[in-house]
Structure formats: structure tokens, C-alpha cells
TrEMBL record:
Lineage: Bacteria, Pseudomonadati, Bacteroidota, Flavobacteriia, Flavobacteriales
Protein name in UniProt: Protein Atu4866
Length: 79
């Protein structure tokens, strides 16, 4: 039986994640911090994140929270 590791186990989530239209860019940094750019606005939001299995929870430095799911190399965020 083949065991598929979660993205938490492989740490393949570290790096840049970009929406299909390129407008939102999440840079997931080592140390559970992120930097989000929107359009021409670099570092629009910054905060912390936690990955459990294939799920990610965000909390920006103002207290806003969001989450998402990694599936087949794509980060899905609820709209």
C-alpha cells in the first residue's frame, strides 16, 4: 500500500502561491510567516500561518483570519 504524504509532512507549501489571474500572491516563508501582495501593492498583508495535513490557517497581523486547502499542487481559498 502506497502512503501519500500530506503537504505538512513534505513542507512543499513553502514558497510563492499565485492566483490564476496573478492578482494575489502569497509568499509562505519558513518560520510560519507569510507576506501577501495584491496587484501593485507589495506586502499588502503580513501575518502567521499554520499547516495541518493539507489545510492552512492564516492570521494576519491585524487579526483577520482565513483558511485554505492544498490539493494536487494547488492552494484553494474559499471565496
Amino acid at each position: 500500500m502506497e502512503y501519500n504524504k500530506t503537504i505538512e509532512e513534505t513542507q512543499e507549501y513553502i514558497g510563492m502561491w499565485v492566483t490564476g489571474d496573478g492578482y494575489i500572491r502569497h509568499e509562505l516563508l519558513p518560520g510560519n510567516r507569510y507576506d501577501e501582495a495584491r496587484g501593485n501593492r507589495k506586502s499588502a498583508y503580513q501575518g502567521s500561518y499554520q499547516v495541518k495535513g493539507n489545510h492552512i490557517d492564516y492570521r494576519d497581523d491585524t487579526g483577520f483570519t482565513a483558511d485554505g486547502e492544498f490539493k494536487d499542487g494547488i492552494l484553494y481559498m474559499p471565496e
